[in-house]
Sequence to fold (183 residues):
Amino acid sequence: MKMKNRTKVIAIHRSSASLDSAGKIGGSNKERETMASAANRHELEVIDEIGLVGMSESDNCSTVPEIDMLIRKLRNHEIEGILVSELDRFSSLNRAAIMMILDCLVEAKGRIYTNDQVFELGTHDGLFEIFVRIISHGESRRRLKHCSISSRAKKRQERAAQILEDVSMRLVKRPNDSDANRD
Fold:
């Protein structure tokens, strides 16, 4: 029985850059299970895995070997797309990396696969949808970060106020040195 040709993709992991005991790019078990399920569902052959953790906005992504390899394979039509566990994993990469990868996916009429969706970047609708979703994820991340920072700052202020109050109370309760000398 002849096996159906599977679409070749590269899996992008975002949660961990470390290698596991089998030498595979890290990632949570849940992320791995989600990606395996997606690969099965969409009949994908994962030919390589890359981890792009901790890539900051200031990083020059053109010097990151994993991105260079991904772009080369897209341009040479060795792969037809990328697989991510969730779209927010892709959208949380360095902006320059996102744009470089999207540009190559558009040129190659490639796809982004998630567990439950396929984004066809060779079409206007697919490209528009991916941009809207990436912008939406970015805005959600920005708001969450702002709330988290605001919450931590508020807690620090409350803690500082509590410490000042405790110190003030000790100073008020402490007997005056001149009163102690009278006895």
Q: What stands out?
A: The mean pLDDT is 77.
